[in-house]
Every structure is written in C-alpha cells, then in structure tokens.
C-alpha cells in the first residue's frame, strides 16, 4: 500500500487529521518540539503538554515534583522552572524528571492531535529519525501521514513547512504519494537546506527570537538530524519511542 502524505498548515487542523485516522507528525522548529526532543535526549522521563497556563499550574499542584516548562510571548512564565529555550534543558536539570510544558502553539498542536493513535514530535534535529519510524508504522497499519505545522498563533510558519519537507524528503518515493502541499514542502526544504539558519532566522518568529536576544536558540534549532530521538505522545504524555 502507498502511504499518502498530507500537510496541515495550522495547529487547529490536527484534530481533523486525527479523526481521519492519520498518523500525525507535529512540527514546531521554533522552539517547542526542538525543546521536547532535547529534553528527552537529555534523559527527561516524560513531557506532558498542557494547553493553558492554568492547566500547567494545576498539574504542578497535583505533582509538585514535576518541572514546569514553557513560554508566553517567548518568555518564561511566572513560577516556571524552565522557559522554552532548548538550551535550558540540560541533563543536570532534567534527567529522570517529568516535565509539564505549555507553549503558545506547539503544545496546542499536540493537544489538538489527541484522538490520534500515533502522534510523533518532530523538528529539524530529528527529522530523519521521525521519517523512518513514522513510515514503518504507517505502512504496517495502513495509515496515511499528516505533517502538522504548529505555526504561530494560528498562522503559517515557514520554518515548520521546511521541516515538513525534511521529513517528507526522506520517504522513499516508491512508498509514498506526496500531496501537492507535501511536495511544495520538499521543494522549500531542498531550496534552503544548505543554510537553514540563513532562511529560518529571517522568518517572522525567527526574527522575533533574534530580537529577544535568543539567536542561539534559532541556531540550535536549525541543526539537521543531529539527534536520533523519536518522541511519541500517547495518553497525554510524550516519551521516547523505544
Ligand atoms: C510555540 O509553541 O508557540 C513556540 O515554541 C514559541 C517559542 O518560540 O517559544
């Protein structure tokens, strides 16, 4: 069976992809998914995505040993242990810990994907590893794949589209049928892959982070396939796929 590969341009559309029975890949290069991947690579036990600050504080009240991580307007909310900078997620701070995370768009896309059987978390750091595992599962279970761009407050994000292209580009052509959106994403990736920072630091959100003095986060997030970590979200918890 050939696997159809679709792109959803906004986080809210994760729900319809989930209802179609697709395997979902949630993408947020700047910075939520990048930080989740870094956290799991550095030994975090799990990351629990929360939609709102209130929900995150509530989970923390119930489990005070959990670390609170995330952002609003790019900055660490009051009382949080960690922001949303991938640099914050050091082994020393998070190894063996459960994290509750809430961000503006990335955790929203993850929560919207909830009805899906398979939800993968991708960024440039792990696009190859997600691509290989997602295709294997989609083929075995006869599912199609939806690459969901978290975007920015409901708007399209070029960096997430490029990353969707990085995932789709690695699918062997004989095994998949790329919808036009996915094909366009592959073209955007091919066009920018020789210097991802050059393009991504000029996107709307890239510029915002640079203005906040967070260009190191953008640089970190632009590294391609440096981590062989495939996070999956199941029953509201993100862990590493073994
Ligand atoms: C988000 O989920 O909206 C982003 O990760 C925002 C950010 O860069 O902190």
Layout of SSEs?
Blueprint: E1 3-8, H1 14-19, E2 23-27, H2 32-41, E3 46-49, H3 53-62, E4 67-70, H4 91-94, E5 98-102, H5 106-112, E6 119-122, H6 127-141, E7 145-149, H7 158-169, E8 176-178, H8 180-192, H9 196-200, H10 204-211, H11 215-221, E9 231-234, E10 237-240
Helix pairs in contact: 6-7, 7-8, 10-11
Overall description:
40% of the residues lie in helices and 18% in strands. With 242 residues, it is of the alpha/beta class. A five-stranded parallel β-sheet has the order 6-2-7-1-8, with helices on both faces. It has a three-stranded parallel β-sheet with strand order 3-5-4, sandwiched between helices. Helix 6 (127-141) packs across helix 7. The relative contact order is 0.23. The mean pLDDT is 97. It binds D-malate (MLT). D-malate binds next to loops.
